[in-house]
Specification:
The chain has 128 residues and is α+β, with helices and mostly antiparallel strands. The protein is built from 1 helix and 10 strands. Helix content is 23%, strand content 30%. The structure holds FE2/S2 (inorganic) cluster.
């Protein structure tokens, strides 16, 4: 009986540790957008949507915005577009191309990322 309890405690500790490692990995990727260094991303003003690792670059009506690609629910990376929506692959939250949440479980809009376009208009410079 005592051995069984010990075994279950070890299994439970292993499961909890696994989820902590996964959570830290997701959180650290998200924090990499705030490390104080500028990041330079390739930019093509003729593409309406560009997915670039931690960022989504959206150009509509001659206006460009950059969003964090991390879902505001639990931080999963959004890397696909379905029509006029971004859909989170984890739990199905949906956002407009303006980053506004349309369907939960997320309830916050995508994070807007400050940026500049380089003088030659070939790069996006993400301010750290
Ligand atoms: Fe995106 Fe849950 S992490 S919906």
């Amino acid at each position: 009986m005592k051995n069984r309890r010990t075994f279950l405690k070890i299994v439970l500790a292993g499961i909890v540790s696994f989820f902590i490692v996964i959570w830290n990995k997701l959180t650290m990727e998200h924090l990499q957008t705030k490390d104080g260094k500028n990041k330079i991303l390739p930019f093509n003003k003729n593409k309406a949507v560009i997915f670039n690792n931690n960022y989504i670059i959206v150009t509509q009506n001659n206006s460009t915005k950059v969003f964090s690609a991390h879902c505001t629910h639990l931080g999963c990376k959004i890397d696909k577009q379905d029509g006029d929506r971004f859909v989170c692959p984890c739990h199905g939250s949906e956002y407009t191309l303006d980053g506004k949440v349309q369907k939960g479980p997320a309830y916050k809009n995508l994070e807007i990322v400050p940026f500049e376009i380089s003088e030659d208009r070939k790069n996006i410079i993400i301010k750290g």
